[in-house]
Amino acid sequence: MPAENETQKVEAILREHALSYPEAHEDFPWGHRALKVNDKTFLFMTVDGEKLNLSAKLPDSKDAALTLPFTEPTEYGLGKSGWVSAHFDSASQVPVPVIKAWIDESYRAIAPKKLVAQLPERGTAVPGPASRPTSKAAKPAARPAAKSAVKSAIRRGAAATRSAPAPVKKAAAQVKKAPAQVKKAVARVKTAAKKAVARVKTAAKKVVKKAQAVKKAPARKAPAPARGKRGSSAPLKRARRS
């Protein structure tokens, strides 16, 4: 049996990583290695001498992956569905951590939700041969500690408030009294506004009464002309006869 070359060793590492996912298995349709879950392929891999070719479904990182010099949309129309193919001429060109992240993304896109629920959150860890999940992800153990830390901080804050210097306590008391003072100020403003409205109404009533009195008063007669004097309407003297 011929010894494995470096590219085949890299393929073995990626294959082992892909098979570490829940219910993952491999198949060989058309002579190509296919890693599947629920009879659906999430990774294709082929080795030809020193060359390695692979394809994965990347619904989230497709655009970023296609900016790399060794990638292209997968043929047969799969590229439209988010599939990306990568081609490497030698094992030294394979970015193993990146390919493992692609395998994780592709598995999550293909696998049933009940299997994806068994995986840790993306960006925190990826499963491997030594950490293959066997049950649903447990709740983080740090939560009780976080709760106790929050309670301790609250207690420290309360103690600090009780032991605060007198000026701080006075300021706190003033802050508490502020709502009552605001209410009193609002009440004073309302009272002043009511008085002003009442004064305006009273003045308006007086003006209306005066106007009504002027309308009801009788019209004054013109004064009679003085005795011995003719009025302006007296006939003119007749002109003397010539």
Automatic annotation (TrEMBL):
Record's compositionally biased regions (Basic residues): 209-219
GO molecular function, one term: DNA binding
Record's keyword annotation contains DNA-binding: yes
Keyword NAD on entry: no
Compositionally biased residues, Low complexity: 129-152
Pfam families per the UniProt record, alphabetical: YjbR (PF04237)
Region ranges (Disordered): 122-171, 209-242
Keywords, comma-separated and alphabetical: DNA-binding
Protein name listed in UniProt: MmcQ/YjbR family DNA-binding protein
Species whose genome carries this gene: Corallococcus sicarius
